[in-house]
Amino acid sequence: MDEKSAQVFLPPRERCFERLRLARFGETVTCVHCESDDVVKRGTTGKDAQQYWCKECETYFNDLTNTIFGQHRFELEEMFYIVKERSEPSAQIARDLGRDYEAVLNFVHKVQNVSGEIDKFELYDVCEADEIYVTAGEKGIEDEDQSPRSRGLKKRDEDDSNQTNHRC
């Protein structure tokens, strides 16, 4: 998929920030360090995140501080796309975004770690799994009643009847 086509599926950046602020702070922005609501806006960061100044603890923070979105080179809308589409194969998401597969996979793993444990879930549709091993047959399963088979070659002089290549 070319870059222009992939952008069609990305949510608008400002909408991503609005959703993040609402989910993180609710109606009132509070300091991520001291939880004070005595904060003022102080411009934006290089990623267009709103920056704030806390009057209580006198520190700066922004919309992305202490989140999984804070320390990545992905754009915020790309990270939202990855979170939304994480049920899709990581390779497909990487192709859609024109990004490195391993970088996308690492971010997906980070999202999964932050999401925590899920007690019960149902798998449906197409499921992606890495390094799955399926047992086919009984090879390698030990039988407790049977003694282990003998291994190795016998010496030629011990038993000539079992030898396949006889020299006369």
Give a brief outline of the structure.
This protein has 168 residues and is of the alpha+beta class. The chain has helices at residues 3-9, 13-25, 76-84, 90-97, 101-115, and strands at 39-44, 50-54, 60-62. The N and C termini lie far apart (73 Å).
Describe the protein's architecture and organization:
- The structure is a single chain.
- With 168 residues, this protein is α+β, with helices and mostly antiparallel strands.
- It has helices at residues 3-9, 13-25, 76-84, 90-97, 101-115, and strands at 39-44, 50-54, 60-62.
- It has a domain at 3-115.
- Strands 1-2-3 form a three-stranded antiparallel beta sheet, with no helix packed on it.
- 14% of the residues are buried.
Write the layout of secondary structure elements.
Elements: H1 3-9, H2 13-25, E1 39-44, E2 50-54, E3 60-62, H3 76-84, H4 90-97, H5 101-115
Antiparallel strand pairs: 1-2, 2-3
Helix pairs in contact: 4-5
Strand order of the largest sheet: 1-2-3
Structural class: alpha+beta
Shape annotation: elongated
- Count of alpha and pi helical runs: 5
Helix content: 25-40%
> What order do the SSEs take from the amino end to the carboxyl end, as H and E?
HHEEEHHH
Radius of gyration from the alpha-carbon trace, in angstroms: 29 Å
